[in-house]
Amino acid sequence: MPVSPFLAAALQFRVDVADVPSNRERAVRLIEAAAARGARLCVLPEMWSTGFAEERLLALSRTTPEILHGLRTLAARLKVIIAGSLPERVGRGVYNTLYVVNATGVVTGEYRKAHLFSPSGEDRWFRKGSSAEVIPTDAGTVGPLICYDLRFPELSRKYFLDGAGVLCVSSQWPSVRREHWRILTVSRAVESQAYVVAANAVGPSGPFRYAGDSVIVSPDGERLASVGEEEGMALATIDPAVVLETRRRIPCLADRNPRAYRKIRRPA
Q1: CATH code, 238
Q2: Which of 42, 110, 113, 168 is catalytic?
Q3: Are 85 and 97 in contact (CB under 8 A)?
Q4: Residue 232 lies in a domain
């Protein structure tokens, strides 16, 4: 992680299903506003360009290369890092993929959602990702997560072991499970001794209503900034020295005893 602190932004807006132009306009407007306030890292909601368009996902995923090109141009112009998930078409299938675009306009990494939310049928519309790696950026090493991934501590633990000081979470988390969102974003920060920058959609989208409450959480679990149920952004300073001090004060990495739980199995 870099020595200097920097400002991060979790961007929150309504994601309209299949309305790529409107969603893109909202995203660009908020990224520009965050950059004007000094943000170096901007995190967008899950599937922010298309929403969960289900039967139309394969067709709509054709817009992703153009969307990515626009993000790369925007990132380079504003000198910001942009992270968020988009539909990635591979053959006749689609992945829910979080892309990280560096401040130079280069895609520095991507992550395909590993945990698909079967209760809403995500496993019918998406292919499951099979790997998860930390992503280097101009603001240090980040660990990417997408929505449902928050419920699986194994993923954030891997990022902790791989040196991530910031977890970037791109989500469409529903209002009905708002308290789970609040608990899980704090839990992942505390157990990873890392910052969590979590961007959520807000308001109605298709048959669901999303909770908003985008948040930035400190390595000690303090909610540094959040948004309510309106369009906006959570802005907070990410200080790499705080990550190092938190890990020095409570040395979880050194005190781990993996021999005691070296085999974590599926339920019998």
Answers
A1: 3.60.110.10
A2: 113
A3: yes
A4: yes
